[in-house]
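Incident review: delayed structure delivery

Summary: a single-chain prediction request sat in the queue longer than the usual turnaround. Root cause was a stuck worker, restarted by the on-call engineer. No data loss occurred. The affected request and its eventual output are reproduced below so the record is complete for anyone auditing the incident later.

Affected input:
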Amino acid sequence: MIREFGEGRSIQLLRGDITKVPVDAIANAANSELRGGGGVDGAIHAAGGPVIMQELDVIRRNRGSCPPGSAVATTAGSLPAKWVFHAVGPVWEGGDQGEPDKLASAYRACLALAEEKGVSYMSFPSISTGIYGYPVDQAAPIGLREAAAHLRRQGTKLQKVIFVLFDDRTYSAWTRAFRELTEEPVV
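Output delivered after worker restart:
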C-alpha cells in the first residue's frame, strides 16, 4: 500500500523484515539504555553487526540514557542502509501517562535525524507495540500522522517513509490506520 503526497513523496506499508529493506536510514525500536534487546532491536543488532553497539557504547558514555520520545543515530554496519536511528518509545501504562505524546515524539525525533543526515528514504517498525505493550491499533495512527505531517512540510529532504511490519496482526492494524489516513483530504 502506498500513499502519495506530491513532489515524489510517499508512505508505504510492507509486511516483512526491516533488516532486509534497502533504505538510507532504519528506525530502531530501542530501549532507553541503548543496550540492545529482543524483537526489532535484536534483529537490527544481529544483522548490522557489532559496530552498531560500539557506537551506542560511545553515545551512552557521552550522554547516558536516551529517554522515551527521543532518538540517537549510529551508522548501520552490515545493514542495507547508511544509518540506524534508535528511537525510544514509551512503555504502555494505560494511556494516561503521556504515552501518545512520547510515541509521537519518538517518530518526530527520527524524522528530524533524517533531515539532519540528508536521508531520502527511511523505514520504521511499529515502535512500542511489542514488549512495551502499546496497543497497535492506537500506535499506528500516531506513526502515520507524524510521517504524513513531515512529508507535507515544505523543503523536506525525505521522499519516502516505509513502515515495515513484521507480523500479520501488526500489518492488519497499520493497514486499517493507513486507509483512514488516505481518506483525509490532502492539504
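Verification: The helical segments are 39-48, 50-63, 99-117, 136-151, 168-183.
Action items: add queue-age alerting; document worker restart procedure.
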